[in-house]
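Usage example:
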Amino acid sequence: MPYFDDVSVGDDLPDLKKQATTVQLVQYAGASNDYNQIHYDAEVAARAGHKSVIIHGALKNAWLAQLVTDWIGTTGTLAKISVAYRGIDYPNDTITCKGKVTGKRTEDGRNLVDCDIWLENGEGKTTTPGTAIVALPTR
Amino acid sequence: MPEESVITDEMRAAIGVESEPGVWPIERGAIEKFANAIGDSSILYTDELAARQTHAGGIIAPPTFLRLLSPGTQTATYKMPYREVLDGGSEYEYFAPIREGDTITSTVQLVEVFEKPGRLGLMLFRINENRYVNQFGELVATQRTTSINYPDQE
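Running the assembly step on the lines above writes:
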């Protein structure tokens, strides 16, 4: 688990790999109470012009949050996470969540680290960029 | 392609009007189900004894669990000019953890409306802010969402 003292601008967050099956999309629909059929009904997805059902934007947001909380562990806290849905992602594709430290500052006694975070599809294209701010402990 | 503004007085009047509250007891089962669905096995969401040893002090909800806690009805309504809508993104800000056993009151309000020309015509952006308050009256988190509406494509 990282301490504020040891983090430097340019550090990479450990990658987080995900691959959603259609069963997981149904599971997420139930757990998040989001029953938009575009996430589990192939006909509805096709009518909207997609090659298959699509991954919930909010699930990608959850994965990017996990990228950050996996990195900070149980000693840091997530203060802010912002994501933009720029591209569609599909089940069974290999998704990689990535992050990089872009800044460090102390504000109101809190030691804050700024990160760029993003989600890449199997072709290495960024579909979901974002930013996060975490508060870390000092040694 | 319509290039005239579709922002109405009705829409402007809705800015800053808070919805009815949604009131949500936070249950361990729902937290566990959500953590499983996103594939996050952190002890903070499922293991009470281990979570107690951390600064969280017990089981807490994953950051995007808030999505489950819908606000009540929006009282200030307005007609939408377009049917087509895209989810543009989300910005969560956290001030305190949400714990198992909390009762969270969730409200939403429209905070900003603007237009931008784009590939699909003049696109309408609506920023809504959700606010989450716990049983102690403490604001635990906010979420700003961006909805993008655009003209029907012929």
